[in-house]
């Protein structure tokens, strides 16, 4: 059995996804309480769950209380290549505000993301975003810090796999078919997701959890359309990335 969180918002889209899944024979239920959703998931009463339209401020802190530190990565369809890519971090509190700890968080995100893609026999190609073009150094102190941070991460992974840093040029990364995009922070990552997924309607499955624990949970936006909730449950149910091929 799979569960979709049913919050006060966006109920019509949740019900559309729920009805479509039921029509296809997927065993799915609606749960309107964050703690109940998490507790049933962790007790294995559910095979998997998605946040649906429940409040992130209720689900995510409780989930962290139960399982510890994790990150989130949105699975999106690359509009240039039609392949999937991971965008992370996408939660506003996913990574530390401290500079050194933030770098450690991004390194963990990259390692978890690589492991996830390789589990699907996808060769990782990592792109690091920063706040400007590389030749913009000196124009803005905050931008400079993001460039230096990305360069430190680049140096850490140098020679281990395909990883690049071209500054702010996310469009070039996607044209190059990079499949792991590491944002500056959770705020910018969340904005990128909203622009691509909720405004430009780029297809996606929601955000998987990246951690050392195997938790079959997908974080979804309260403002998503029914297809995102549907896609997320189908992914948990084992459809993998086949939905993008339809």
Helix content: 40-55%
Shape: globular
What value does the Rg take, in angstroms?
Answer: 18 Å
Secondary structure class reads alpha/beta
Number of helices: 8
Q: Report the major sheet.
A: 10 strands, mixed
Strand line-up in the sheet with most strands: 2-1-3-10-9-4-5-8-6-7
Distance between the termini: 25 Å
Amount of beta strand: 15-25%
Low-confidence stretches: none
Number of strands: 10
Order of helices and strands: EHEHEHEEHEHEHEHEEH
Mean pLDDT comes to 94
Describe it for me?
The radius of gyration is 18 Å and the shape is globular. The chain is 43% helix and 18% strand. It has helices at residues 11-23, 34-42, 56-67, 99-118, 141-157, 170-175, 186-199, 226-239, and strands at 2-5, 28-31, 48-50, 71-77, 84-88, 125-128, 162-165, 180-182, 204-210, 217-219. Helix 1 packs parallel to helix 8 (226-239), helix 2 (34-42) runs parallel beside helix 3 (56-67) and helix 4 packs across helix 5. The protein has a ten-stranded mixed β-sheet with strand order 2-1-3-10-9-4-5-8-6-7, sandwiched between helices. The two termini are 25 Å apart. The chain has eight helices and ten strands. Strand 4 and strand 5 form a beta hairpin. The protein is of the alpha/beta class and 246 residues long.
Search tags:
246 residues, 18% strand, 10 strands, globular, single chain, ten-stranded mixed beta sheet
In short:
The protein has 246 residues and is α/β, with parallel strands linked by helices. It has 8 helices and 10 strands. Helix 2 (34-42) runs parallel beside helix 3.
């Amino acid at each position: 059995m799979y569960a979709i969180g049913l919050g006060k918002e966006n109920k019509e889209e949740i019900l559309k996804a729920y009805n479509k899944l039921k029509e296809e024979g997927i065993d799915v239920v609606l749960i309107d309480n964050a703690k109940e959703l998490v507790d049933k998931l962790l007790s294995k009463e559910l095979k998997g769950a998605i946040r649906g339209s429940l409040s992130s401020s209720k689900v995510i802190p409780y989930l962290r209380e139960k399982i510890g530190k994790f990150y989130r990565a949105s699975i999106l369809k690359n509009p240039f290549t039609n392949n999937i890519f991971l965008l992370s971090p996408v939660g506003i509190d996913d990574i530390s505000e401290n500079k050194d700890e933030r770098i450690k968080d991004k390194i963990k995100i990259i390692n978890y993301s690589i492991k996830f893609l390789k589990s699907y026999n996808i060769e990782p190609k990592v792109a690091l975003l920063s706040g400007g073009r590389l030749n913009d150094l000196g124009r803005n102190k905050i931008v400079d810090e993001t460039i230096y941070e990305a360069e430190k991460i680049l140096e850490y992974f140098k020679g281990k796999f395909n990883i690049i840093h071209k500054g702010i040029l996310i469009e070039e990364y996607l044209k190059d078919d990079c499949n792991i995009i590491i944002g500056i922070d959770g705020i910018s990552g969340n904005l990128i997701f909203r622009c691509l997924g909720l405004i430009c309607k780029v297809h996606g499955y929601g955000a998987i959890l990246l951690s050392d624990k195997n938790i079959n949970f997908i974080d979804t936006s309260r403002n998503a359309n029914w297809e995102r909730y549907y896609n997320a449950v189908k992914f948990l149910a084992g459809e993998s990335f086949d939905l993008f091929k339809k």
